[in-house]
Amino acid sequence: MEMKRMHEGEVMKGQKRLFDLVKWKLIVCTVIGLTLWFVSGALEFPTVFRIMFVLYSVLGFVVFLLLDLPPMPDLSGGKAVVAILAFYIICSAIYVGAGSNLPQFDPNFEKGKIAMIIEAKKRSHPDVRPQEVLKKTEELSTKTDELMQRVAKLEESMTGQSTAGEAPSAEELAKKKAAATAGGVPSDPVAYGKEVYELYECYNCHKIGGKGSVKKRGPMLDNIGNLATIDQIKKKVYNPKYMMADGFEKEYEKGLMPKNYTELISEGELDALATYLSSLKNTSVNTPKPIVKQP
Amino acid sequence: MKRRRLTLFAILLGLMGVALMAGAGHAQVPEPEGYSIPGIENRGLIWIAAQMHILFAAFILGAPIFVVISEWIGMRQNDPRYDRLAKEVTKVTTILYSMTALTGGLFILFLVGLYPNLTSFLVSHFFPIFAVIYPLLFIAETLVLYLYWYTWEKFSGPKKGRHVAIGVLLNIIGLTTLVVINAPTSFMNTPPHPIETATLWDSIYNYSWMPLNLHRTIGNVTFGGFITGLIAAYMYMFAKTPEEKAYYDWMGFVGNLIGVGALLLLPLAGYILAAEFFEFDASIGPYMMADQLSMYFEMQGAMVGLIFMASNLYIWQSMKRISGIESMKFIGIPSTVMVKSGFAIILLGNAIWMTPHGFSATQATATDALELPSDWGFLALMPSKNTAAALIVAVTIINYIIYNRAIKRGTIQWGKIDFASQFVLIFLAFSAIWTMGLMGAVRSLVRKYFHVYILFPDYSPESYTPTLAHASVMITSMTLVFFAIVSLAIWLSLRMGKTKES
Predict the structure, then answer these.
(1) Beta carbons of B282 and A256 less than 8 Å apart
(2) pTM of the model
């Protein structure tokens, strides 16, 4: 009985110690968390940042609690093994949870981008093999047709019967040709140009319609159509040193605009991109004036 | 007769056309290339094989660096603990060496089977490396590692210097192997331009080769240090005698010291590597820091902050086992207050490091509503991040200085450390390796839909950038498998060995 009372006393003492340990830390961290929440709100931080600030104060509470916790009793044997396994599971759950709860992009959008790239490559390279094959097929088919016609004529002259109908007509050949060149540049170059803009992730440095580049590495392009010609835009993409946006001297000198678009963007894609950009004529947006730096 | 010949000729021509079409059609069939295994993407398989191989390789290349230093210190100071540490880590290394070879073989098999064109391109481009230099180095590394291990007893006492010399040779071969194999790895990220006129040396000495060598060497030492901490933690937890506890407590401290010491240099090495990527192609910078990989870096910020926090917590726990320093002061402030204040600074530094410019996983969906207010945009810029990193590093160094003063004034009670500290050591190893996996994924993903950036495209449907959620599951799974194998290796080599000895 005495032992039980002593044990209960120990437990109560332990609980009181733990409460004392937690009390002030909890009060301080709550005050810090609330201050951060309201001050950041007054400073117009978006909610997501305000939540992050509060989480920092929670982390602070955990860290300072860990610093003052009484020593952990030693574990051994099976208990230690279970503790280690549980610890790994907790760590894994935290890391997977954190990784999954940070903002994610849509993987299907990413997959779609790859499909777009393949499609763009197929239709923008005039020298790619599928078209070579189609061209050769067409040539061979024409030669075969000529020979068949000659055979038919020869037969006709020998027997007096016409076999011309067996050879494909000019109309059929035209259809074949049309089929062979199918898959070319889409009919709407502006829409295609927008696709190219997104495909090569120009939004990483530029903004159109308020979307993209939070870091403002490059100028907003909403009104570029009024400030640069299609040719100038094309030249700028292939040679970033050709023009400089007014006010972007530092970025221009640093060479922030990638110079490898000659290798990445085909001429067909460039045409479409320049057509799209030249269609942007929103005068309400202050797109900086491009200055030609190289002839 | 003439007609029949002409008909025959026409048919032959037609058949040739069909054959040509079929042949040309076959020759130009686009990707996917190689085999594919149902249920798992080729890229996923390669990811698993490559990461598992790199994890084992990092340990077997990193551990010998401090093993030989430890042995040398033991020889100079005549302290048997250092020699024992070196020997025990080498014992685990020899077991994991076979795992490195096994996963390396698996990686090559997957590469050949799943990506034959790429493998053929890389092997032919770096033929002297893949066919001669790398195999020779691997054989030499194997021989010298076993020589190092099996001559431990023979070259003891006055002959210890010879053994240390073998260890140094092992490290020279190991580092050379690392530097050599980094050539094709870095080439895939930053190939020379134009490739047609590039010599083999141009391909080796590409933009990111040296930064990668630096980053991986430091990373491997960090990795080795924290794994040593892990070994010590396991052994401490299952130690039967106070002497054993005292020794493994000491070993854990040394492992953590090595890990943290090298970790202090890692942010700088990582920064140099990223800067070289950016210098090579300016579009890589935004892709990493603002676009699809930005949240990977957010996670990295959190991980690095936690690792620094945990290593300083370990120092705090280590100080608690030093008696006679209760009234110790550092620049007039009680040392306990000083260390605790340091944690507040680390928290602040970590908060700045982790604050992104915007909370969007891709700039395609970035809007003003998700970004920092313009007056506070500086928090997301490099000067702020560098200041934050410097603060965290400075506090860690100061804490070690305080610890160093404490051990001079008081008495360390080895084996009396808080048991919770062993979980801190496990946490450090687990988190460091997890972060390594994360950053390895980033280094590979900056190539986007290219196997070799700009040069060798990967137009397979699976060459998209995976989300952080997907990557977290992959990295956690691989880290767990790695830990399961390492734990088994530690158990077999140290615990089982001990049982046999006793």
Answers:
(1) yes
(2) 0.80
